[in-house]
Amino acid sequence: MKNPEIRTKRTILRKYRDADKEKFVYLFTDKDINHFMGGQHCQTKEDAEALFLKGFEVYNGLFPGRHFEIWAIEIDGELAGHFELKQTQHTNENELEIVYMLDKKYWGQGLMPEIIKEINFYSSGFDKQLIATINPDNLKTVKALNKVGIEKEEWTEDEDGKVFKVWLKEF
Question: Does residue 1 form part of some domain?
Answer without folding.
Answer: no
